[in-house]
Amino acid sequence: MSTAAEFASALLRASSRAYAAAALRHLRDSGSAPVDRLPATFADPLADTEARILQIAESLAVERPRLLAGVLRWYRSAFAARGVADSWLPDNLRALQTTFEQELPAAYRGVVLTHVDAALRETGSAVEPEPSLLATGGPWLDTARRYLLAVLEGRGDDAVGIARGMLAAGAPIAAVHDDLLTVTQREVGRMWLHGEIPIADEHFGTMIAGRVLEMLHEHLPPLPADAPRVLALAAGGNLHDIGLRIVAQRLQADGWRVVSLGANMPADDLEWYFADRDVDLVAISVSMALHLSSAKRAVAMLRALPRPPRVLLGGEPFALCPDLHLVLGADASAGDAAAAVTAARRLRPDQRRAAR
């Protein structure tokens, strides 16, 4: 990574609040956006602008402007569903552009504006409504629909029973992961994004998905004592662990002995864990770009260990940028559970010895 991008990223993080306030002043002075007339469903304009600066800082840190595209598509869909004017996002970005042109040191201005320009280009495209994931396809489509209906009606026990029945009907654990839990979790997220359900329903769906995963855990095969060991964790700041738990179960089904540390694992505390324990692979979940810096710190700490494990990174940012793990210093990355198992197989100690 270039020194200019690294320093600029750190500068944006350190002064994000001040830059956000300056951008809002530019908006108010220009009169181009109704800052004080946003709908009640909208977050605080200052907090929203600061979050955008932090997202730009993360894309700068890895020099991947493409990461902003996915973030901007999410924001545009959410804003459209909540009555926020289409002009808010491009006007907000142009105000940031003006702020950075005026206030950033000349040596770092260009690299930051490259990322702002990439974000602005994304706002110029049409907002395409995201179709329902349960509209068509899949051998377990009817089961997934019944499960989701049970969740949305608050019938948690029924939803778990549907998942249990799917397993009893011969579905492998991977199918319950992919064709039931993953697809319905994404559909609930889509429905919340488009303003079709409240966030409370999304939280309830996540809780029920956790119960299903506990049920599935009882069906995982026992492993020999000498099975390769993997430590699974979510990067610091990542509060979501359903995807991590799915990957952990898939790895255990594939012959790994898994220890899962769950969500929001601080990188600074990992070194102590390894003081008297050996691990063959560390799998780190990064659900959004804002967690990349935390993941990078964790990878750096792992690389500095006397016996460093192999490192696998996973999550949506790696689906957008498949080579992103190289920037962060990891061995491999994956955008979904199936890809994580494939990558982990390549990193198994016995496979590495065979390759030599």
Describe this protein's structure.
- With about 350 residues, the protein is of the alpha/beta class.
- It has three domains: about 5-125, Globin-like, CATH 1.10.490.20; about 140-215, Methyltransferase, Methionine Synthase (B12-binding Domains), Chain A, domain 1, CATH 1.10.1240; about 230-355, Rossmann fold (3-Layer(aba) Sandwich), CATH 3.40.50.280.
- Helices cover about 60% and strands about 5% of the residues.
- The chain has a five-stranded parallel sheet, sandwiched between helices.
- It starts with a helix and ends with a helix.
Which descriptors would you attach to this protein?
single chain; 356 residues; alpha/beta; Globin-like; Methyltransferase, Methionine Synthase (B12-binding Domains), Chain A, domain 1; Rossmann fold; 5-stranded parallel beta sheet; flat; disordered C terminus
Strand order of the largest sheet: 2-1-3-4-5
What percentage of residues falls in helices of 4 or more residues?
55-70%
- The whole-number mean of residue pLDDT values reads 91
Largest sheet: 5 strands, parallel
Number of helices, where a helix is a run of at least 4 consecutive DSSP H or I residues:
17
- CATH homologous superfamily name of the largest domain? Cobalamin-binding domain
User: What is the global morphology?
Assistant: flat
Helix/strand class: alpha/beta
What is the CATH topology classification name of the largest domain?
A: Rossmann fold
Assigned CATH class of the largest domain: Alpha Beta
Distance between the termini: 31 Å
**Count the strands?**
5
Strand content: 5-15%
In total, how many domains does the architecture comprise? 3
User: What is the string of SSEs from the N terminus onward?
Assistant: HHHHHHHHHHEHEHEHEHHEHH
Poorly predicted runs: 352-356
CATH architecture label of the largest domain: 3-Layer(aba) Sandwich
